[in-house]
Design a protein that fits this description.
Blueprint lengths: L4 H22 L4 H12 L10 H21 L3 H5 L2 H25 L4 H12 L3 H10 L6 H27 L10 H35 L4 H23 L3 H13 L4 H7 L4 H13 L6 H4 L1 H25 L4 H11 L30 H6 L1
Helix pairs in contact: 1-2, 1-3, 1-13, 2-13, 3-10, 3-11, 3-13, 5-6, 5-8, 5-15, 7-8, 8-9, 8-16, 9-10, 9-11, 10-11, 15-16
Length: 374
């Protein structure tokens, strides 16, 4: 690899995001569209400078961790528990409707049910990063709609964990190993319970005492390092040990630090670069998109866009209304769900598990729904 590959990727990604983000704002579009376009420009499917996508994804992970950690700092666990009656059934019902709708449409186009349901599951999962940025832009992140939306996506994060555990078992070529779906889900559930318990204990006793010791040194650098260690350490540990996403781990880390008296200082002093790194998340997603797919698979793209733009928001709105929430809450949640598109291609199962998991070679049209939803 080029010895300057990391710096070139960082510089080209940020420069492209700055230029196209500015143009998007001038045209009165969301700047996220500009960031995605920047990814296409520096990606492998367009001529000119080609940034290293693997490096860009690592930078993007840092951005996601810092962004979700910052959101967790300003949330309290009781705010999420207060909306569980809407968030849990809402996420389950909406995911089921979205998955089924796309599977039926793709079946009409000649796909088999397995591939259709797998792709449907992928598009039914929300992007916490996109949702958080949109709600912050609307100043709704800490309103009731924000609490419901965050709780909704936390549930969908847990659904993603379950799906990624179940699919390899279902489509494994050798089922003789005797793997039980119930046992796998039970173990995953136990890990998540243990993780939440650890975070609660850390937030009540461990984190406040540690930050108090660091604060007594009066060193801003040490305090910043301590907060970053907590954010990145808990996020990475959650992913590696407990099998959840780094985004969810970072959010839980924010909840833990947010219970201490140092939450405001951590938010204001320790995370000044989170937005710059978070931008690279969208750049890395844009790098996945091959413009030629617009010609190669137009009907499939149209079907996915229909589910994302029409079926998913409508399902969210009707679900929230059916759960007893007023129309004034159902409409904003339905509108917000229009932007909860899962931009992370990692939700699409790896084709190595089974040939039936690879309905379209490469899936380089996958980020396109993000453009439409924004």
């Amino acid at each position: 690899m080029d010895e300057l590959g990391v710096l070139i990727t960082f510089a080209t990604g940020l420069t492209g995001a700055l230029v196209f983000g500015y143009l998007a704002l001038r045209l009165r579009f969301s700047p996220i569209i500009g960031y995605l376009l920047a990814g296409i420009v520096v990606g492998p499917f367009t001529p000119g400078i080609v940034a290293n996508r693997a490096i860009a994804e690592q930078f993007a992970e840092i951005g996601v961790i810092l962004l979700l950690f910052g959101i967790g700092l300003r949330f309290h666990l009781r705010e999420l528990l207060a909306v569980w009656r809407v968030a849990i059934p809402g996420a389950l019902i909406q995911s089921t409707i979205s998955t089924t709708a796309l599977a039926v449409l793709l079946r009409l186009m000649g796909w088999d049910w397995t591939s259709g349901f797998i792709l449907g599951m992928a598009i039914s999962v929300a992007s916490t990063v996109v949702m958080a940025l949109v709600l912050a832009e609307w100043h709704d992140l800490h309103a009731k709609i924000g609490h419901i939306a965050v709780g909704w996506t936390v549930v969908e994060d847990l659904l993603t964990v379950a799906l990624l555990l179940i699919l390899p078992i279902i489509f494994a070529p050798d089922r003789s190993a005797g793997q039980s779906i119930g046992a796998v889900l039970g173990l995953a559930g136990l890990k998540i319970v243990v993780l939440v318990a650890i975070v609660v204990l850390l937030g009540k006793w461990g984190v406040p005492r540690a930050l108090e010791l660091i604060a007594k040194t009066r060193s801003r650098e040490l305090f910043t390092l301590a907060v970053l260690v907590l954010a990145v350490g808990i996020a990475v540990g959650s992913a590696k040990i407990f099998g959840v996403s780094m985004a969810l781990g970072a959010f839980l880390a924010g909840l833990a630090v947010g219970r201490s008296e140092f939450a405001a200082r951590a938010a204001n002093d320790a995370l000044p670069m989170r937005d710059a790194f978070a931008v690279l998340f969208f750049v890395s997603v844009g790098m996945l998109f091959d413009p030629r797919s617009l010609i190669q698979v137009p009907l499939i793209i149209t079907a996915v866009l229909f589910v994302v733009v029409v079926a998913k928001p409508l399902a969210a709105m009707l679900t929230v209304r059916a759960l007893g929430q007023p129309l004034t809450s159902a409409l904003p949640i339905g509108a917000a769900s229009l932007r909860w598109v899962n931009s992370a291609s990692s939700s699409v199962p790896s084709p190595s598990a089974s040939d039936s998991l690879k309905p379209v070679d490469g899936m380089h049209w996958w980020p396109l729904p993000s453009f439409q939803s924004l």
